């Protein structure tokens, strides 16, 4: 499929919004991974 190459203000604004969304999701994912790993290590330490 052909992708239109128009660069009007709404497309530029949408791209910047998507970049902000990606950054937010990555930060949230990193925080969740850190929490899960720390809970796992607490669990493993209490087993022994």
Number of helices: 1
Can you summarize the main beta sheet? Answer: none
Overall body shape:
rod-shaped
Percent helix: over 70%
Secondary structure layout:
Layout: H1 9-47
Features:
transmembrane helix, 0% strand, transmembrane, mainly alpha, 48 residues, Cytochrome c oxidase subunit 2A, rod-shaped, membrane
Describe this structure in words.
With 48 residues, this protein is mainly α. Helix content is 81%, strand content 0%. The protein has 1 helix and no strands. The radius of gyration is 20 Å and the shape is rod-shaped. The termini are far apart. The model has no long low-confidence stretch (mean pLDDT 86).
Describe what is shown at a glance.
With 48 residues, the chain is mainly alpha-helical. It has one helix spanning 9-47. It is built from one helix and no strands.
């Amino acid at each position: 499929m052909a992708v239109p190459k128009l660069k009007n203000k709404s497309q530029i604004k949408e791209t910047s919004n998507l970049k902000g969304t990606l950054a937010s999701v990555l930060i949230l994912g990193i925080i969740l991974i850190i929490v899960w790993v720390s809970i796992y290590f607490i669990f493993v330490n209490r087993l022994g």
